[in-house]
Design brief:
Elements (H helix, E strand, L loop, with lengths): L4 E5 L10 H9 L2 E2 L10 H14 L4 E6 L1 H12 L6 E7 L7 H6 L14 E6 L8 H11 L2 E4 L16 H19 L1
Parallel strand pairs: 1-2, 1-3, 3-4, 4-5, 5-6
């Protein structure tokens, strides 16, 4: 079977040790894309880090993003000449940075890139996420051409949600990885 590189893209402030992304990194060896400044995320800097990580991979890539990382994927796909290296993306709890409270804190991320993504994409969201309404998450999924799945009332789908290693989320990722391996082998 074809090997894949699975890249983890945390959101603003990174993903701490109890976040499901950190669990997956430890358990499955997925690679976290590091940022120079997790506290003051500048879109251009974050896109460069993702571009370098994708180009450094010898294998096809699957992206696993949380919160601001979801917007990083969309913005990167809108500007990169290397999107063909990405086979699929799991976008979890996208942040609505166009809301007034977030747009003032994260101005370089406004507007959100809303084009159809050129790879198989699934958006997982919670209907009570404090950083993105269900309507906004569904609208983002539609604009990205992604399948949308409501994970219930679990907040921002982060460490505070108490997900641990989050088996339901990992099952969705495994389905994406399987499809990516099949696609790449064809």
């Amino acid at each position: 079977m074809t090997s894949l590189t699975t890249l983890l893209l945390p959101g603003w402030h990174n993903s701490g040790p109890d976040h499901w992304q950190s669990h997956w990194e430890r358990a499955y060896g997925y690679k976290r894309v590091a940022q120079h400044d997790w506290q003051r995320p500048l879109r251009g800097d974050w896109l460069i880090q993702l571009e370098e990580a994708v180009l450094a991979s010898a294998a096809p890539v699957v992206l696993v993003a949380h919160s601001l990382g979801c917007l990083q994927v969309a913005a990167w796909a809108a500007s990169s000449a290397h999107v063909q290296h990405v086979q699929a993306a799991l976008l979890v709890a996208p942040a609505d940075v166009e809301r007034e409270d977030l747009s003032q804190q994260l101005p370089s991320w406004v507007p959100i890139a809303r084009q159809r993504l050129p790879f198989n994409t699934v958006v997982l969201a919670s209907h009570n996420d404090p950083f993105c309404s269900q309507d906004s998450a569904q609208a983002l999924a539609r604009s990205w051409g992604a399948r949308y799945q409501d994970m219930g009332g679990l907040g921002h789908l982060n460490a505070e949600s108490g997900l641990g290693d989050w088996p339901p989320g990992h099952a969705v990722l495994q389905t994406l990885q399987s499809g990516a391996q099949t696609l790449h082998a064809a």
